[in-house]
Each structure stands twice: as C-alpha cells, then as structure tokens.
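To assess whether the prediction recovers the assembly geometry, we first specified each molecular entity separately, as shown.
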Amino acid sequence: MDHSVITVENLSKRYIIGHQRAPTDGVRHVIEAAVRSPFRWLRSRNQEKKAQREEFWALNDVSFDVKRGEVVGLIGGNGAGKSTILKILSRITEPTKGRIQLEGRSASLLEVGTGFHPELTGRENIFLNGAILGMSKEEIKRKFDEIVAFSEIEKFLDTPVKRYSSGMYVRLAFAVAAHLDPDILIVDEVLAVGDVTFQKKCLGKMQEAQARSRTVLFVSHNLSAVEAFCTRGIVLSKGRVVFDGPTKPAIQHYLDSLRGTRPPSYGDVIDLCAFGSRPDRYPPQLRTLRLYDETGRPLGGNLSAGAGMKATIHVELEQPAANVNAEISFLTLDGDRVCTASSAYEKCRDESRLSGSVVFRCEIPSLPLVAGDYKLNVGLYIGQTEADLVEDAARVAVSWSDYYGTGVAPMHGVFLLNNRWAVATAADMVLA
Ligand SMILES: Nc1ncnc2c1ncn2[C@@H]1O[C@H](COP(=O)(O)OP(=O)(O)O)[C@@H](O)[C@H]1O
Ligand SMILES: [Mg+2]
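The predicted structure of the complete assembly is given in tokenized form:
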C-alpha cells in the first residue's frame, strides 16, 4: 500500500508562445505590406520575430508522488498547469526538465481530441485503445459489451468518432479508459461535458477503481466531486504546487487563495464562473453578469445616487427547469443586505420550462442609495431552492448626487428616503 506508483520529480514545462497575428493579417496583407514598403517590412518582420518568441513556464519544479490506491485531485484555477501535468504523465508531451515514473498500466482520459483516432469508428477505437493499453484482443472482446453499454453509444458504434458530439465522445472515452481496468487512471475535466446522470456513473466507476486499489489522478472544476471522491488534494498555482494534503484543507486553501487574489470588481462584464465565493456544492450555472447605466452604456462601476441601472445575467442551466429566477442583491461592504432585485418579484413572470442558455434582463429605474461602495450578490433560484450563488460578484460605487434637488442629501445611512415635511411653530399649533 505504501508503494509509489507515480513519481514526479522537479518537473518543469516551458512553452514558447508564438504571438499570433490577427486573422485579418493574412497572406494578402503581408504581401501588400512587403510590396508597398519593402525595407520597413523587413525591419518590422525582424522585430516581430523576436517578440514572437516568448518563453512561458507552465510548470515550475513540481514534485509529488502518489501511492497505490490513492485518489488524488489536482486543484487550481484556469491555466494553473493541471492539464499539462496530466499530459506529461500520459506521455502526450515531454517535460522540459525533471522526470516522471509510472508503474503499471495507465489509461488517460484527457481533453476531447486526444486518445481517439477521428477517422476510425467507435468500435475500432475501442480495440485500438485496448491494444495501446497492452491488452490482448480476447481481453478486449470480453469487456467490449460492458464498454458499449456504459457509453450508451450503441447505435453509433460503426460511425467514425469524428462525427460524434463531444458528449458521445467523452462517454466512449471514459467507458474505454475505465473498463480496461488500468492500474492508474488519469482523468481530466470529463465531468464538465457529460450530463448529470453520466457524471454520476463516472464517479461510480472511479470509486470502483479505488475499491480495487487502483490509483486515480483526477481534475475537475466540480469541487464537491473532488471532495467526495479524492483522498488527497494537490493545489497548483501558476505551475507550482502550493498545497499538498488531505482533500478538504486543499479545497479550502484553493478557495482562500481565490478570495485573496481576486480584487473586487468594479467592471462591467463579470465572469461568474470562477468565483471562490460560490458554495462548492453548486455547479456554476451563473455565467456572466453585465452592468449598464440607465441608457444602456457600460456602467463603469459608478452610479450617481438615485440613478437607474440595468443588468443582464447569463445563465447556463444544467438541466431543463421550470420557475427559474435570478436575483441581484445589494449589500454594504460590512455585508448587510440593503435591497434585492429579483425576477421572482415580476408580476407577469415567466414560469415556463427553460433549458440551456438563458439571459435575465433586469432594470432598476432608480437606486436610491447613500453615496458609498456596495457589493452585489448574484443568485439563481429554481422553484424555492437556491441553485447557484456568487457573493461579492461585483461592486458599484454610488456617488453623491443632488437627489432631492435641494443641494443637500445625507452622507450617512444606507438609502435615500423619499420624505415630506411641514414645520409649524407653537403659535401655529394653537391656531390649528
Ligand atoms: N501548447 C501550448 N502552448 C503554449 N502554452 C500552453 C500550451 N498548453 C498550455 N499552455 C499554457 O500553459 C498554462 C497551463 O495550462 P494547462 O495545463 O492547460 O492549465 P489548466 O489545465 O490548469 O487550466 C496555461 O497558461 C496555458 O495557456
Ligand atoms: Mg485543463
């Protein structure tokens, strides 16, 4: 049990980034420039060549080893280097420095597009993959039916896989990788593609592998799956290991680092996918928040007190659902909720069944808040249940304005109250 089956020592990977020209700078553009001004063209080409070769270290001195039977989750934001590690371990790409060692048979399920031969049919690819894994034809034949049943692509077995949808592709790839019973199973982000039922099947299969003391290396954005399933978490940031230990603290470390490094956004287009403030049991169905002023121009993080604003929330529903509502709530920087805008408050709201991409548009004719900074939380509800939540998704700075048209307005408190006053003296009251 104590035996290392994966050893990674001082692994580094350098990519040379080629700066691509814009697509409009095609051949014709180059020829035109060369003809118009040959010397300038040559000079600029030399400068370009230098600028084009920029080094980038996707992995920087990464070391860890994995014992037999461990299920390790690689955790980290986009570009952290997770896929690069898995590709090196699957020998799809070479390390620049360092070394790796794997013991036993390994099977990898990487991003769609690796592992299968596009021209071959599903059936042929099953045999090809089995052969690559070192299995005999007999062995593959014995498992063939099980693989097909698991993948649910029976009807398309004799279709070239290049015609498969990404979902079908991943189902087949996972079925092959899992059923060929490798000693080491390497899985990158497959759960992002399949539907929920298939994801459950995959997790079940990986759990089975673990029960048979197989080793699993697993990458997923779905942190609750990582938590439920992995025995250990390795957190990567900018190509380095920043935490290696039990899963729960590893996830916590990752979430904390997100909170720490993400500056509050006063921007206009906010990517809601990667927020660490999202409870980790929620799949990211809230995708993008856009903020505009009342005329529809980007808000620029600033609003004068009492002015109106508009927002759109782009949602990707995991599965069709009825009675879906989105909301934006405004909070003080201390976290006290001031007010909430919700599609559920709409009189003629749409309770019909929605699926896939949905955009909620919100219009707030006036936001009568006292000058200061406010946090926005964005929530998604299906029926009465909270389905997604991003806290402190954006911030808006409300600036002082002449809300009452009198030159005075409060600097304290939270909201601007509409109010009327009359003043009477004691003498007036006696008369009344
Ligand atoms: N073939 C490549 N050429 C240049 N840069 C690459 C290549 N593959 C990956 N990268 C870069 O390396 C970094 C790590 O990528 P990757 O391992 O895919 O990250 P992750 O899977 O954690 O999101 C990213 O910044 C990515 O842009
Ligand atoms: Mg990746």
